[in-house]
Amino acid sequence: MKRLVIKIGSSTLTTGDGRIDQSYLEAFAQQVAQVREEGWQVVVVSSGAIACGLERLGMSGKRPNDMPTLQAAASVGQGLFVSAWGNAFEKCGITSSLVLITRRDTADRTAYLHARDTLERLLDLGVVPIVNENDTVSVEQIRFGDNDTLGALVSCLIRADLNIILSDVEGLYDSNPTKDPDAKLIRRVDVIDQEVISSAGDAGTIIGSGGMITKLRAARILGVAGIPLIICSGRRENVVVDAAAGREVGTLFPSTHAAHEITPRKLWIALGDTVRGSITVDDGAKQALRERGSSLLVVGVASVSGKFEVGDIVDIRDKNGYLFARGRVAASRDEAELAMGRTRQQLLANRLLAEMADKPLVHRDELVIFD
After folding, report:
1. Domains of the chain as residue ranges with CATH
2. pLDDT, tens digit, 9 for 90 and up, residues 60-82
3. Is 297 within 8 Å of 285 (Cβ atoms)?
4. Which of 122, 238, 323, 361 could form a disulfide bond with 127, CB atoms 3.0-4.6 angstroms apart?
5. What is the pTM of this model?
C-alpha cells in the first residue's frame, strides 16, 4: 500500500462567509474513496476547528488575534469539525478518526514513536485519520502555527509516498497572481532557491493562517525525507485523484533524495520555528556541509546574528543570504562572534577560545541540510 498525506486548509474547505462547506467535504471524501481503491492509504491533515467555532459563536467575519479567543473557538468548534468530517466519510462507507497533535507531542523520541504507531495502526485498520493541531490547548511555544508544517511532520512520521497540499490557488506562481495578471504557474520546482522563495506571497485570506512561504518550508522538509510534494487548487475537479495518478496538476516538488526515515531529532530541528539566530558561512564551509557531511566549525563562520545560547536552533545561510541548513548550536552568539574569522592556530593560542578550535559549532548529528 502506498501512503498519501493530503493537507487541506480552512480557506479551501469553507465558504466565502467562513462556514464549513459540507458539500465540498462530501465530494472530497468521494475522491479519497477512489484513491483508496487504487491502493493508497490516506491521512488528511485539516484545519477547520477554529472556523467552525467562530461560526457557532457568530464571529466568522473576522479571525481574532488573541490566543484565548482562538482557543475558545477551537474548543467550541472541535465537535462540529469532527462531525462534519465524519458525516462526509460515512456516506462513502469510510470510518474516520481525529488525531490531535502539538509540537510537544513530537519533541522526544518516545512521543514521536507513539504518534507514529497510532497513525500506522489506524491505517492498518482501514481508517482515514483526520489530523489537526490541538488548538484548544496549544500556545506559541508548542504550536506548529500552520498545517503545511504539520502535514510535513505527518508525512515524515508515516514515511508517506506523496504529500498533496490543497490550496486556494493553483500552485506556485512566478509572482503574486492576485496582484499580477501576467503571473505564470510554475509546474515543477527541483531546487528551492532564493528566487523561488522570493516569489512566495503572504497568506491570502482571513480564514487561513499559512501562505505560500509555509508551503515552501514544508517542501524543503519533505525533500530532506525524500517525499515529493504537490501544491494545487483544492477546488479543481478530481484534483486528488489526478495528483495521485501522476497527472499534471499544480506545482510538483519532486524529491531528489531517496525516501528514508528522518530521525526525530533532525525532524524537530527542521520543523523548528523557534529559531534564535542565524549563522552565515563561507563558501568552503558550505561545500563541506553539503557535499562531505561535515560538522560546522567556527573557522567557517563569516558572521552571526540574533541572540542564541548553547542548545538553540539557528538558521545557516550562505554569503548570499540563502538558507540552506538549520542546526543546534554548541556555543553562544558571543562565543561564536569572538571566535569567527580566526584560524585554528589562533584559537588554540587563545586560552578563552582554545576549546572552539576543534569543537563543532554545530555537530553533523544535529544539522539538517535542506538541499
Report:
1. 2-265 (3.40.1160.10), 274-369 (2.30.130.10)
2. 667 777 888 888 888 888 888 88
3. yes
4. 122
5. 0.81
